[in-house]
Amino acid sequence: MSRTPLDTVEHAAATPDVELPWAELGLKKDEYERVVEILGRRPTGAELAMYSVMWSEHCSYKSSKVHLRQFGEKAPESDALLVGIGENAGVVDVGQGYAVTFKVESHNHPSYVEPYQGAATGVGGIVRDIIAMGARPVAVVDPLRFGAADHPDTKRVLPGVVAGIGGYGNCLGLPNIGGEVVFDACYQGNPLVNAGAIGVMRHEDIHLAKASGAGNQVILYGARTGGDGIGGASILASETFDDAKPSKRPAVQVGDPFQEKLLIECTLEAFREKLVVGIQDLGAAGLSCATSELASNGSGGMRVTLDDVPLRDSTLSPEEILMSESQERMCAVVEPGKVDRFLEICAKWDVIATVIGEVTDGDRLEIFWHGGKIVDVDPRTVAHDGPVYERPYARPDWQDVLQADDAGKLPRPATGEELKDQVLRLVGSPNQASKKWITSQYDHFVQGNTVLAQPEDSGMIRIDEESGLGVAIATDGNGRYAKLDPYTGAQLALAEAYRNVATTGARPLAVSDCLNFGSPEDSAVMWQFAEAVRGLADGCRQLGTPVTGGNVSLYNQTGEAAIHPTPVVAVLGVIDDVARRTPVAFQEEGQLLYLLGDTREEFGGSAWSQVVHDHLGGMPPKVDLERERLLAEILISASRDGMIDSAHDLSDGGLVQAVVESALLGGKGARLVVPDGLDAFTFLLSESAGRAVVAVPRSEEVRFNDMCGARGLPATRIGVVDGDAVEVQGEFTLSLAELRETHEQTIPSLLA
Amino acid sequence: MTARIGVVTFPGSLDDRDTQRAIRLAGAEPVALWHKDKDLKQVDAVVLPGGFSYGDYLRAGAISRFSPVMESVVEQARAGLPVLGICNGFQVLTEAHLLPGAMLGNDHLHFICRDQKLRVENAGTAWTGDYTAGQEIHIPLKNMDGRFVADTYTLDELEAEGRVVFRYLDVNPNGSLRDIAGITNEAGNVVGLMPHPEHAVEPLIGSGRTDGLPFFTSILKKLVTA
């Protein structure tokens, strides 16, 4: 085996004319020139590897950064925010000395290539973000979007994704309490696999990703480093090695949930003993990211000996080691006197742990290999000073045409019989149908603190057994609305998640987001992105819920066809006593059904327009965030004071969908009367925002009405919980048996 | 006076803390046991909780059987120590030959999580005294490898000796032979089942029922009055 000389810093300085494959690694010419300018020489292969991954869209947010700044600039005053944007995950104060961290991330592209591992490692990555903040993970949620439900490829992707999420999350012992499953042809070839996680800690346990204190040791622990998830680094490898070696390494990482479970336990034990100064998980960009971020966020520099990294494959080049995205690894900074104890804890859990470097009092990140210095950089230039693009954006010409194609003009059902048929089609359509076949593959009982899980409006977890303090989380997004108007669509996603949290009785506190869009190089997509971010930032300011962090996923498109702009919003809420939570299911016959909020003729982007007419056009429902806030206050008060026994948010599918779900879950029917001033069709199927349907015990009716009246929230009595059918007086009756058959058979018959 | 009930933590155990909580709620004292430790700390009974003990990549429970703690558990169970194996714990008990039969992958090949209806067939074991025979209960079930199998001779023997402790009702969620959800040994001190009684001990949490609490009150009563 012959080998070219090691490309050290010295060698790079002496050989300025050596051509490096920067284009193959995804860098643009001007970006490469900027690296040369920063270093004052050509980069070494290892340095190029680091810059290329850290300056990628995924790691540097170079296209989205200029817009994302609004989340900080427009952030509302909030006493609840303990750690904001920029750390591994945001941290929120939920009272009684507890802090909660939560975040949503995407693993879209890998999940299309290899559904099981793509989705599994998505769960693994978000969970490591949570432990890196010092928290014990307590729940996961999974907002998922696939192509048409009856498309053959959906049957390949969906079962793999669901099995991957279950296979990984179930093995970690994390209850899966929420999320969404949406089908739309626009996600064909670009499924959206977003993964969210929540963690809980005491205030004093918050940890940050920074390396401080010269002499402190840098410990890499967890799985050995292998060749998985390397992507472009093998190009560099083939530059430095001229023999034949395995070159086509899998670009999708492979997960080992058992290893991750050990990582969680030993990390939390090290936290409990206060052994950790700074910590960072290894996700995208692996060691390149962990070392440069730890070093640049701390006060000193860092020296790393790459030879000490435990390897799964001894033929890996230094560039590959730096870029490897092998899963289940973390990096901790530990004071010298505490290293032995840290290593002991790792040994207790059979986790491999190795000192690979130390914090220095300089300001350089230096990495050594076989005695030679192969990296010598200012870590800030790698981690934070990546390129920032002001991508051109412009409202596309077709937007006006789309908005002018009013869904209100679509033919409506003419008779009660026709209305009944359309309702039944809707309840059995893939998007509105029961997702039990999917969610029953996830453990939602483990840890013994799950108060609510899907199909409830929000997932809810008890965090203190004595006081009953709990947190709730809901994720929502509607790409159809956002396509019609990205600004409004983003606010509707926020409003729905906010409402879902309040419907269960919890007070919304903070927001995380996962922004899924097409190519930023398309000015129309960039406009959608800019509008959605602006809408979300404005909405969060108005509702008083700051964005604590999140994730951007671009390039979700096949050829010229981008996905619908899909901002997915997660809202976190707190409830003082989980015993006061409000479920979706009808509890008792005879209770009165009230519709809260205003119903208008709003059908643009609706489930009805999609299922019955295969139509997408017009304007999405109007957003009124002040109304959302009032509705939330009423729902929270009513739940706290025992005025309602069940509640369900109204969103896609409208009132009838909500009533059918509450009835099927409770095993009790409903008799509905169309209120004055509304026709049956609009009453049942409009998707006006800012609404919920609640069941009020008769003994509470006066008190409940007085409260809504005094605070100015329209509350209309629309019927009663009764019988074993959903009856709309003068229109139709559908038995619960028929509704259940229709609602529950769709997904298994398509996918099982 | 109360009883001390040990809960083994294997590295991949998931429901160990939940089981400790259930023991506490029943009025007994939970004692944490570690898989690398042979010492059972003189507990009065042991629970092997659910989870994926060592990752279960080979076969559920196949490696745990050889752990130091299991040497002591097997030895003392044979001498009469009450042992309950839940889900992965049941798998470990069959691998350790404290209970007959084996667990295969669910017949539908998916992980399944549901609130499962069961019939109590035997209320005479150390862990089921607070139930009555024939009682119908709901206990959450969640597993990938829950299909109980044994040869016909063993199955007939289990039936004849009344050692089938729980049977699935309405739905057989995994293809278990003769709808068997849980069994006991000849002496009645070792019980294994796939459903998770520790997830049904508080009215607000999980399935919202408390049908699982009698497991833990049964053993407490037996130990305290013994």
TrEMBL record, chain A:
Key words, A-Z: ATP-binding, Cytoplasm, Ligase, Magnesium, Metal-binding, Nucleotide-binding, Purine biosynthesis
Domain named Phosphoribosylformylglycinamidine synthase linker: residues: 24-62
Protein EC: 6.3.5.3
Binding site for ATP: Y61, K103, D513, G550
A GO molecular-function annotation: phosphoribosylformylglycinamidine synthase activity
Residues the entry annotates as binding Mg(2+) 2: D129, D281
Main location: cytoplasm
Active site: H58, H107
PurM-like N-terminal domain location: 86-201, 456-575
Gene3D superfamilies in the record: PurM-like C-terminal domain, PurM-like, N-terminal domain
Top-rank lineage group of the source organism: Bacteria
Function statement: Part of the phosphoribosylformylglycinamidine synthase complex involved in the purines biosynthetic pathway. Catalyzes the ATP-dependent conversion of formylglycinamide ribonucleotide (FGAR) and glutamine to yield formylglycinamidine ribonucleotide (FGAM) and glutamate. The FGAM synthase complex is composed of three subunits. PurQ produces an ammonia molecule by converting glutamine to glutamate. PurL transfers the ammonia molecule to FGAR to form FGAM in an ATP-dependent manner.
Assembly and interaction partners: Monomer. Part of the FGAM synthase complex composed of 1 PurL, 1 PurQ and 2 PurS subunits.
Protein name: Phosphoribosylformylglycinamidine synthase subunit PurL
Organism: Streptomyces tropicalis
Biological classification of the source: Bacteria, Bacillati, Actinomycetota, Actinomycetes, Kitasatosporales
From TrEMBL, chain B:
Gene3D superfamilies associated with the record: 3.40.50.880
Source organism, top-level taxon: Bacteria
EC number: 6.3.5.3, 3.5.1.2
Record pathway: Purine metabolism; IMP biosynthesis via de novo pathway; 5-amino-1-(5-phospho-D-ribosyl)imidazole from N(2)-formyl-N(1)-(5-phospho-D-ribosyl)glycinamide: step 1/2
Active site (catalytic residues): C87 (nucleophile), H196, E198
Matching Pfam families: GATase_5
Alphabetical keyword list: ATP-binding, Cytoplasm, Glutamine amidotransferase, Hydrolase, Ligase, Nucleotide-binding, Purine biosynthesis
Segments passing through the bilayer: none
Localization terms from the record: Cytoplasm
Catalytic activity: L-glutamine + H2O = L-glutamate + NH4(+); N(2)-formyl-N(1)-(5-phospho-beta-D-ribosyl)glycinamide + L-glutamine + ATP + H2O = 2-formamido-N(1)-(5-O-phospho-beta-D-ribosyl)acetamidine + L-glutamate + ADP + phosphate + H(+)
Keyword Repressor included in the entry's annotation: no
Subunit structure of this chain's protein: Part of the FGAM synthase complex composed of 1 PurL, 1 PurQ and 2 PurS subunits.
Job of this protein: Part of the phosphoribosylformylglycinamidine synthase complex involved in the purines biosynthetic pathway. Catalyzes the ATP-dependent conversion of formylglycinamide ribonucleotide (FGAR) and glutamine to yield formylglycinamidine ribonucleotide (FGAM) and glutamate. The FGAM synthase complex is composed of three subunits. PurQ produces an ammonia molecule by converting glutamine to glutamate. PurL transfers the ammonia molecule to FGAR to form FGAM in an ATP-dependent manner.
Listed name of the protein: Phosphoribosylformylglycinamidine synthase subunit PurQ
Gene: purQ
